[in-house]
What we know:
Blueprint: H1 15-36, H2 42-49, H3 53-81, H4 83-102, H5 107-135, H6 139-168, H7 175-178, H8 180-194, H9 206-210, H10 215-226, H11 231-254, H12 258-280, H13 288-291, H14 294-324, H15 329-335, H16 340-354, H17 359-377, H18 386-414, H19 420-457, H20 460-465, H21 468-476, H22 478-487, H23 490-529, H24 533-538
Helix pairs in contact: 1-5, 1-6, 1-8, 3-4, 3-5, 3-11, 3-19, 4-5, 4-8, 5-6, 5-19, 6-15, 6-16, 6-18, 11-12, 11-19, 14-18, 14-19, 14-23, 16-17, 16-18, 17-18, 17-23, 19-23, 21-22, 22-23
Amino acid sequence: MENSYASHTPGLAGRKEWIALGVLMLPLLLVSMDISILYFAIPYVSQDLEPSATQQLWILDMYGFVLAGLLITMGALGDRIGRRKLVLGGAAVFGAASVAAAYAHSADALIGVRALLGLGGAALMPSTLALIRNLFHDAKQRGRAVTIWTGVMTTGISLGPVVSGLLLEHFWWGSIFLINLPAMVLLLVLVPFLVPESKSASSGSAGAAGAGGSSASSAVGAAASREPFDLVSAVLSLAALLTFIYGVKEWARHGFAPEPALAVAVGLVLGHAFVRRQKRLAHPMIDLELLGRRAFGGPVFANVLAMFATVGMAVFLTQYLQSVQGLSPFGAALWSLVPASGVLVAAPTAAVLAQRTDRAYVMGGGFLFAAAGFCWLTQLRTDSALWFSLTAAAIYVGGLVAAMTLANELALGAAPPDRAGSAAAVLESGQELGGALGMAVLGSVGAAIYSRDMADALPADVSAALPGGVADTVRETLGGAAAAAARLPEETGARVLATARDAFTHGMGLASVGAAAVMVGAAVFSFVVLRGTSERATSADGDAPERGDLAPAQTGGLE
């Protein structure tokens, strides 16, 4: 492995490595921002490009779909050709696609360049996390670096709407994409000087030995590097994740219907075919034996549960601030940054505690802390003070980020350095799946409660006064009720809006109960399954951990 920092005795990272980490955080911030940056810009895009309803959905979703679908492929590709090369290639694609998106003249063109942005983002995200594994050999320093990585990723998702709202007040909608360009240029200039190349071990590589790799794993890496890239597995992983996440999101958006159900089923079948193929290959794209180890597979599952709650509740909080509290979109975006204060306290505290006790206990404590925040949200009312909802959100966000940071650190430390890209991609793919499931399950709970309450609580005289189409719109979503109320007589509109706000807040409260229950389950999982894995997984600077307790051991993997 080409790595100017590697040695037979892993040492402490110096100033150059920390500067390199700062440079790598630039693309991570922008890639995560691009997930949410279009939320406030879509009305301006719609006015300019006049997309159909279907095209508008694809403009919003295409980036996330392609990003999720290509993470595993790009992680494996980075292990093979070099993660620095992949970062540079991803930065070039991301920068060029950003310019093309800013000046897109049709809806179809914008959909296409959003797919290219997803391609560039998929190349950047797992490589940044994998390079941390190779820049920081010391477990404590790697823990701090992963804490920064997790914080930047979650901050970027929250910062996207704020940056979007700020730019849209002064510039045209394309400016939200052009802000990517300076950072990508800086990345292309600085990364070759600051970040060492790293990839799968080759014969005689000092990098593998320096990071705790054995001669056997070097031989496996050398053999893997001579194997042709498995395009069939790449297509299967892309198709499986794309169809599954599409089906789950459509299910969450429109409820049960044959098309999203079929998409979920097709995704599961393709995923099964992908797993069966990995079992037969001598050098699989995903090391199933590694995934079966408690020290790696356990944190991946914990991250799925964390993102289930994070994304599932984010939609509720955004709508509550705007449609219940009555804040402007930009004001709601600014206030939604307040919960990040919980991260500033919880993440460093968790890192300190993890040095003194088993990480599993600290992760479990983070999940319980998040559960307490969700329980707080169950007491939310339409007339609650703004600080009440923001404090609850700060509590659950702080607990979740603390748990996710330690999960990322534990899994990354358990992965052999020559498989760091694939390991990071599996982690991030799990997060995407967790987010999609959270949006579907918790969103469906909230929507069902809202519809039932609106049917039961809307006064009969008001229901009778509503035209048929308007009545259906009012009972479906809070946004629909707000839009309908604005067109109704003042008194009738006020009663409709008050009832809708009560129904939405009730649905949000019951969704919070579901999120709290999942967090308690995640805490129990951490305490029981992950207990004792951190010491073995991070001993000798992340040497291969114990054979897993989640799946039977297999031979011939990374030993």
